[in-house]
Amino acid sequence: VDPFSALSLAGNIVQFLDFGQKLLSKGKEIYKSAEGTTTTHIELELIYDDLWAVSDKLAARAPPSPANYSSDNLTDYRLSIVDDQISQLATSCQTLAQELLSIVRELRVDPGSKHRKWESFRQAMKSLGKKSQIEALQQRLNAFRDEMTIRLVAVLGDQQSLVLQEIQKLSNENIRLDLNSKDRLQDLTKHIDEVHDMIFGRLEGVIANIEREKLVKATSVESDRLAETSIKGNDETTDGFVTPDMVFDKLTKADIINGDRLAKNTNIQRDKSAGSSSIHRDKFTKTTPIDLNELAKKIHDLAVRCREISKEQRILSSLHYPYMYTRMSNVVKAHFETFDWIFEPDCDVGFVQWLERNDGIYWISGKPGSGKSTLMKYLYSHPRTQAALKKWAGETELVTASFFFWSIGTQMQKTQEGLLRSLLLSILKQNHSLIPVACPALWALKDHETFPEDLWTLDQLQITMGAIVEQKQATSKFCFFIDGLDEYAGHPADLFEVLYSLSQSRFVKICASSRPWNVFEDAYGESASTKLYLEQLTRGDIELFVRSKLVGPTRLATLALEDVGFNALVDEIVARAQGVFLWVYLVMLSLCDGLINGDDVRLLQDRLNLIPSDLETFFRLILDSVDVVYKVKMAETFQVIMESSEPLTLITLSFLDQRDLEARLRDPVSAMDNYDIFDRHNKTRRRINGRYKGLLEITHVPSATDYFGYRVDFFHRTVRDFIRSDDI
Question: Which of 128, 147, 166 is the last residue of a domain?
Answer without folding.
Answer: 147
